[in-house]
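Ticket closed. Logging final result for Serotonin N-acetyltransferase.
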Amino acid sequence: VARQILLLSAQPFVKPMQSSPSVSPIQRRHTLPASEVRPLNTQDAISVFEIEREAFISVSGECPLHLDEVRHFLTLCPELSMGWFEEGRLVAFIIGSLWDQERLEMDALTLHKPRGSTVHIHVLAVHRTFRQQGKGPILMWRYLQYLRCLPYVRRAVLMCEDFLVPFYRKSGFRSLGRCAITVANLTFTEMWYPISGHAYMRRNSEAIRFPQGLTVHPPLSGPPTLSQPLPQTEESSEGSDV
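Final structure:
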């Protein structure tokens, strides 16, 4: 909030002069939360696509989701997305949708099946200036804990290139073998994660705010929180096809 400072003259009977409005740097610093994790919406679509395009085109030459598809899923199922913001800037995100078959098929790339019990994770990506900080594994872990609070979700699935299989295994995913989906000349491994039980709920400063008053907290024995980054991971693990 701009403050106007009145500069008073030392001489009597002189009308005070008013300086031009200014904004305190300290006040501006606290305008936005330092770190926030929340669902994405269609207003975030351009930022999402810019991060995704930079992360994937240089590696595989293909984006998991084009801009219209990003908007499509953020319109139909925004509750299955998660974005990590630093001072209002999107630095990492996940986008998912529901699927109703045991294995992924081509339709899973573009369809959302509201009656499905499987969350298809389309993409995990981290902004290039925030890689090598463990944000990808932390965000994935928080996302999986959030899915435990959704009673209709039974498992999560994704497809990734072979060099990313170890990365997702560290997050608890298991291989289902070769995926039936191919994109151009790319082939993928299909992986799954069982969703069971309920998220551990407790009061602390790391609460994640989601719609309808849902607050998701990390388990007491889980991976590090935002204030405790994971060890550095390979850069390609936080910006490749999933």
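The first strand starts at residue 6 and ends at 7. No further action required.
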